[in-house]
Design a protein that fits this description.
heterodimer, A: 4 strands, elongated, B: about 300 residues, 13 helices
Chain lengths: ~375, ~300
């Protein structure tokens, strides 16, 4: 298989594998935990290395994954005291563990190739050099198989425990009441996140792990309200980001991991601006609509308040309304035009007067606002 | 003892210690606000996000002066902060997700730019990444002066806008209702936090900077409910742990400065969480025990030991 194709396959597998647990991280407001874990697994690797003295030992992976869970546990322990917020707990725990790792490396393992860069900035471009050879036959890059197994584990766990995860994510009280332990689900999920992070950083480097884990789910979050659809969408978006990112990197001859992260950002930016209902444009449009609707209702109330009263001439004059409501002349004119077009008011002798329909609308507005 | 005395007379040690103390002080003060506003991890996000700015500044201005690189870092850190704020304001995406996304994307952009720079012949790009990851022992007198100026400006701003920041931090709705603009104040405060993070970058590095911002403030929070006490304590904790960390790393061979400082400040947090009067865990246990005994004295049956 061509190395280019292999790199893209690995990227797609990693992207989907990361997006699945990432979806739950985003929904549970624990996105930064992924960043925390990507840093602390270094300590796990270092400690496991001190035990095994072998850089290729599978125990390093195990140590890393375990340290991820320990990180979560320590963070929970701190934030459960309620003496500090959850984000502060994350920010206290991971720099400490990371610092300990760096101190251990510089003091006791200076001669070993175990530096921060190799953990923080994994290189996808070199992944195809590491071959999987079974019975003397080369059957593809090793990373395809390791990340493939990871993807299968994630898929299996999330399909099997879908309803538990869903319930514990959206209503942990109810989950506890009906007998699923939210804590168990939580640690199960975090073990998965930890495993995925460890498996993925070897292939793509830790910063890209965060981009892959959080980017696609956040993008999907702006497109759907349905958990299943969000999982599928984020997997698909992750895969697209991986392939596009590789093409961009090949085109410009730059860092593959970096370009995948940037594509993830660009895709999010597109969705952020244009997403129906939840994007920037529709949010701004909705806000300005609300402003106009509110102004219309206000003007109708104002008119019906002063209708047939002595001060009507002063309060409801076409040119004086803006003074009483403290609006700009343009805005007032716009609102009045719009109300007139809808047949709610009529302009007569320099006065704005309610029509029958306007009176009805005003009463209706009043009832929807105040009759609870 | 004599080795410690000799250490404090050492010029390199004085420079590094002065630099990290300044940093501890500044980040202690601004970190208090970040922690109280539940934006603790902004430090982590901004420091990662500064990579593309550093590389861009190098490419565009062709200089590796600290000021130039810091300017680049500042611009991209600010850009990232603005993006995060606008994502949170306009969509239902939460702060933490927006932070994680923006920070990883910016860092990715930085990686792209780095690989691009490496292709320029004779570009002398070595050390750009090192800048982000920090190296306290390479601090120069000039860097310290820069930190001092920035620090003074930041502290003056904090004093000047003290009541405004206090108000916005604790009750931004009320601040708005009496005529302050929380939007502008938040922006100013975020800008100041970003500046503090950026000047800390080259001392302790990208990852440890987030610790310098959060940890002293978290520790200080345990001892008091008053803002000014918290800010003062936090600055003190930051400064003390910086001196201690620098001293330990100079006395013990092969002990990097940044991580040593982080370990020192983390010890302060653990002590504070355990022993702080009123809030601390030990005090809480003591109170619970006392209540149980009082309850028993009044003839009640304490929980768990029924019948």
């Amino acid at each position: 298989m061509a190395p280019q194709l292999e790199i893209q396959i690995i990227a797609v597998i990693v992207a989907v594998a990361c997006a699945l647990p990432g979806t739950f991280l985003v929904l549970r407001k624990m996105s930064m935990m992924s960043d925390s874990i990507t840093h602390t697994i270094l300590l796990g690797i270092v400690l496991a290395f001190f035990v095994t003295h072998d850089l290729s030992s599978p125990f390093l992976i195990l140590g890393a994954a375990l340290m991820g869970v320990v990180t979560v546990w320590l963070t929970e322990l701190l934030s459960r005291t309620r003496l500090l917020a959850e984000d502060a707990a994350i920010g206290v725990v991971f720099p400490l563990l990371f610092s300990i790792a760096i101190i251990l490396i510089t003091r006791y393992a200076g001669s070993v190739h175990l530096d921060t860069d190799s953990v923080l900035l994994g290189e996808l471009a070199f992944a195809p050099f590491d071959r999987m050879i079974v019975g003397g036959v080369d059957i593809g890059a090793k990373a395809i198989y390791t990340t493939g197994v990871l993807l299968l584990i994630n898929l299996a766990v999330i399909t099997l425990f879908f309803k538990e995860l869903k319930l514990a994510t959206f209503d942990s009280m109810l989950a506890a009441v009906v007998g699923f332990s939210p804590a168990l689900v939580h640690y199960g999920l975090m073990t998965l996140v930890s495993l995925t992070t460890v498996g993925a950083f070897q292939a793509v480097g830790s910063v890209l792990v965060v981009a892959f884990m959080i980017g696609p789910p956040v993008t999907a979050y702006l497109l759907t309200d349905d958990l299943k659809r969000m999982l599928l969408l984020s997997g698909a978006i992750g895969a697209v980001n991986g392939v596009l990112g590789y093409q961009l990197a090949a085109l410009l001859d730059v860092s593959i991991a970096g370009s995948m992260a940037v594509v993830t950002g660009l895709v999010f930016l597109l969705v952020f601006i244009f997403a129906p209902h939840r994007g920037l444009i529709s949010a701004l449009r909705r806000r300005s609509n609300q402003k106009i609707e509110f102004a219309k209702a206000t003007l109708l109330f104002h008119l019906s308040n002063h209708e047939n009263s002595e001060e009507e001439a002063a309060e409801a004059g076409v040119d004086t309304i803006q003074v009483h409501l403290r609006w700009t002349p343009e805005f007032t004119a716009k609102i009045m035009r719009s109300l007139e077009r809808e047949g709610n008011i009529r302009l007569l002798d320099g006065l704005a007067r309610l029509t029958d329909e306007g009176r009805q609308t005003s009463i209706r507005n009043y009832n929807t606002l105040f009759s609870r | 003892m004599s080795s410690i005395l000799a250490l404090f007379q050492d010029y390199t040690f004085q420079t590094v210690a002065l630099g990290s103390t300044l940093l501890g002080l500044i980040s202690g003060v601004l970190g208090s606000f970040a922690v109280l506003r539940k934006q603790s991890l902004l430090g982590d996000g901004v420091s990662h996000s500064s990579l593309p700015g550093v590389v861009m500044a190098f490419v565009l201005l062709g200089s590796k002066n600290t000021e130039v690189l810091l300017l680049g870092a500042l611009v991209s850190g600010l850009l990232a902060t603005l993006l995060i704020i606008s994502i949170v304001r306009h969509t239902r995406v939460k702060f933490d997700s927006a932070l994680a996304l923006v920070m990883s994307v910016f860092f990715g952009l930085g990686l792209i730019l780095l690989t691009y720079v490496q292709k320029i012949p004779n570009s002398n790009q070595a050390g750009l990444k090192r800048f982000i990851f920090g190296q306290a022992s390479t601090l120069l007198q000039r860097d310290i002066e820069l930190m001092m100026i920035c620090g003074l400006v930041l502290l003056a701003l904090v004093l000047l806008f003290w009541k405004e920041f206090k108000l916005v931090t604790f009750d931004s709705d009320f601040a708005q209702s009496i005529g302050f603009s929380p939007k502008k104040l938040n922006l100013l405060l975020s800008f100041m936090i970003v500046l503090a993070i950026i000047i800390g970058l080259q001392t302790v590095g990208v990852i440890l900077m987030s610790a310098m911002l959060i940890t002293p403030a978290v520790a200080a929070r345990q001892w008091t409910n008053r803002l000014w006490v918290m800010v003062t304590l936090s600055a003190l904790f930051g400064a003390v742990s910086s001196v201690a960390g620098t001293a330990v790393s100079s006395l013990v061979p092969k002990l990097p400065t940044g991580p040593a400082i982080v370990v020192c400040v983390s010890i302060i947090v653990v002590v504070s969480v355990l022993f702080a009067p009123g809030r601390g865990i030990l005090h809480r246990l003591y109170r619970r025990r006392k209540n149980r005994i009082l309850y028993k004295l009044e003839g009640g049956v304490p929980n768990g030991s029924a019948t």
